[in-house]
Amino acid sequence: MHADVIVQAQHVQPLTDEPTAPADSVAVTGGRIVAVGRAADLAPLRGPDTAVHVFPGATILPGLVDVHAHPVWGSISIGSGVDLRGADSLDEICARLGKAAAGQETDDWILGYDLNVNAFDGDPSGDFLADRFPGTPVSLMTADAHALVISPRAVEVCGLTGAETFTDASSVEVGPDGRPTGYVVELQAMDLVFAHHPEIPVPTAAGYVRAELERLAAAGLTGLHALDFTDPSEDVYRHLEEHGELPLRIRCSPLVPADSAPEVWEEIARLQGRRGRRWHVEGAKFMLDGTADNGTAWFDHPDIHGENREPLWRDVEAYRAAVHFFTERGIPTATHAIGDQAVRFALDVIEEAGPAGRAPHRIEHIESLPDDLLDRFAELGVVAGLQPVHGTRHTRADATDNWSRRLGPDRAARGWRTRDLLDHGAVVALGSDWPIGPGDPRVALADCQLRRPVEEPGKAPVQPEQAVTAREAYLGMTVAAAYTAGTAHESGRVAPGFRADLTVFAADPLDLAPQDQPGNAVLATVVDGVVQCRP
To answer: Which residues form a coiled coil (predicted)?
Structure first.
């Protein structure tokens, strides 16, 4: 039988240390790899209808998978908002917003994303927007996506008083006068503002998502794990598949809201298995705590402001019950746990609940981890889902950033322990938390090796002892990603019988210095055996 497709390069990079024969070609039939070897050895599989793609000098790797991303709301935020990345002063923020406001009506919303809280001298507040944008509702999402800074007019439009109460750790912050400052923290409070944002039609939202997914695929991704499934996710995915094909695979894990009732858990359980051609729902996402930057992470002792001491789930026994609920139904869980106490509690609950089925439980972020928890990930088979780009891009080696100042030197020194977790036998799966982190996997993987932003050679590394090798980094988005999804038997490797999901690089990234990896051209991605050549 002849192959449907043959992809030929200079080298097939297996990534693993297992002995394999040298290979430069991959043959694919029906979306599966049927042979890997030298071009001459695969010649009998080449028929008159076989599509042959030749990439001289290139390297074929297993397709890269980002295990933590937010493709729908991230794309909509980018498509409809002002990019505040790199705006480190209130003047620069206002200048960027001013360009967006030009030509629009005064009462039209201005939305922004990636707001740097270090731009404020003290607690974030929307008061600085009053003089520049009087009468205009402005809503800016912070870089960690766990808070909003909104203008006085937005406070008025949303009817916020500061007296609002929530079942989770959300808050509408107030000043000494008891009036809202415009700092709106965590999801339930943010939802009060989102309800007043302009509605984005599904075709428009789908256009935003299509554009961003194409950019991510062009950077080398063949898949990602969407750790959410909120509206309009399903409508967007279905719209895209009605009008074409997703450029990569998407595994969606819906969020279980903090302190939600069993009726909500039942609804999420019913979503399991819902799918399209390249997207499906699997798993449940929990947020056990918030973020250290806004004081809502759960540590074993408070930060310098007396915050970061409580879980997002006010009733932690409800979290325990929910994890058991999904585990008993064979549904794997992913728990957002940033603080040391949140990580400890999540591990304890997972140990009680036991394995969920084909895919392992996972804990996400793990921003500050004490020594006594390092061994437990391997012991319990829990995946450590890390985004080291948060450490390289949201903190500073001199500890002058908000995260480090709040937590103090001891806890800051235990940040994003990629090296230590690997050395203690944990499976470390790497993600970006896009759009909170850079979506280009080459950038994220270079940062993992350098422990600083790859494009800033003069910047001191953050916890450089936690750096990993190129091989370890790329394993985190291939073999480890497949294990995390419970598909290690059919993805994450270039081998017969496996899915034909491949990334073709101009050069072998394992032969490159970390600083050269972002410039390593992606010549093609292959999903289900479909080759998409990249310019």
So the answer is: none
Structural domain containing residue 144: 80-194
- CA-to-CA distance for 393 and 52, rounded, in angstroms? 41
Domain boundary among 157, 176, 194: 194
Q: What is the mean pLDDT of each run of 10 residues along the chain (535 residues)?
A: 96 86 96 97 96 97 98 94 92 92 85 91 91 92 92 95 90 93 93 94 97 98 97 97 97 96 98 98 97 94 96 95 98 98 98 95 98 98 96 94 95 97 98 95 98 96 97 98 97 97 98 97 98 90
Co-location of 312 and 445 in the same domain = yes
Q: How far apart are CA 354 and CA 328, in angstroms?
A: 9
CATH number at residue 378: 3.20.20.140
Q: Please compute, for residue 187, the number of CA atoms within 13 A of its CA located in the half-sphere on the CB side.
A: 17
- Number of compact structural domains in the chain: 3
Residue 89 DSSP label: S
Length of the chain: 535
333 shares a domain with 219: yes
Which positions ≥6 away from 327 have C-beta within 8 Å? Answer: 333, 353, 354, 355, 356, 361
243 and 280 in a single domain? The answer is: yes
Using alpha carbons only, what angle is made at residue 55 by residues 51 and 56, rounded to the nearest 5 degrees? Answer: 135
Q: What is the pLDDT of residue 121?
A: 87
Residue 115: strand pairing partners: 142
Q: How far is CA 535 from the centre of its chain?
A: 25
